Amino acid sequence: MSNAPSPQETVAKRILFIMVNEQGLRAGDGMSPDNLTHDLTRHDIDQVQQQEAIEFAKDKGWLRDGPYGELQLTETGFAVD
């Protein structure tokens, strides 16, 4: 049996990479859904993949909804390799 990550996990980790390495976000920082969608589209990640990966990341505690509708990076999400 393979320990390969699921497609959702792979895309979720790419989202974290974009937020931390491209946008310079830290734990507690947020990104608007529109800006995130723009960046993910630029990385050839379609809407369905985006939604599935965001839900995966929320379930893992990597991301959460912020008070102003933004997607916030958690301490756990910031620490993911």
UniProtKB/TrEMBL annotation:
Species annotation: Diaphorobacter aerolatus
The protein, known as: Uncharacterized protein
Protein origin, superkingdom: Bacteria
Lineage: Bacteria, Pseudomonadati, Pseudomonadota, Betaproteobacteria, Burkholderiales
